[in-house]
Write a structure and sequence with these properties.
Order of helices and strands: HH
Helix content: over 70%
Shape: rod-shaped
Number of helices: 2
Distance between the termini: 44 Å
Length: 89
């Protein structure tokens, strides 16, 4: 019986670590996309053309959606870890 309990604890630890690693990768990707969107929005705003302004607006909407999706995933991760809402920065 102790062997079965140990195996389940080991499996639980493995899955928890795997979950943390996956979340860490999601977080890194979110930061990269965030940086990309901000730079592209700023670049398009400085061009001062109608097309650039429209592109900046589109990028801003995509950026907002990306942030909402990441916030949702962060909340799910936090709940799976037994905590409240997640806020790193």
């Amino acid at each position: 019986m102790k062997l079965v309990t140990s195996i389940f604890r080991l499996l639980e630890s493995y899955l928890s670590l795997k979950n943390k690693l996956h979340y860490s990768k999601l977080y890194e990707n979110h930061r990269k996309y965030e940086e990309f969107y901000i730079k592209e929005i700023e670049k398009n705003r400085t061009n001062s053309t109608n097309e650039s302004a429209d592109r900046a607006d589109l990028l801003r909407e995509r950026y907002i959606q990306e942030c909402r999706e990441f916030e949702h995933l962060s909340a799910l991760y936090s709940k799976s870890q037994g905590g409240g809402s997640h806020s790193d920065d």
